[in-house]
Amino acid sequence: MKWITREHPKIDRIACPWLIRRFIDPEAEIVYVPYEQVITSAKELGATPFDLPGVEFTHYGDKCTFDYFIEKFDIQDPVVHTLAPIVRGADTDQHELALECPGLWAVFCGLAHNVTDDYELLDKGMVIYDALYSWAKYHKGERHTQHTVERLLIDVYNKYLKYGDSKKVPEWAKELKALIQDQIDTNLSLNLKDVSQNLDINPSYLSREFSKYFDNLSYGEYIRKLRIEKAIGLLTSSTYSLTEIAYLTGFSDQSHFTRIFKQHTGKTPSAYKKNFNKGRLK
Question: Which residues make beta-bridge pairs with 33?
Answer without folding.
Answer: 6
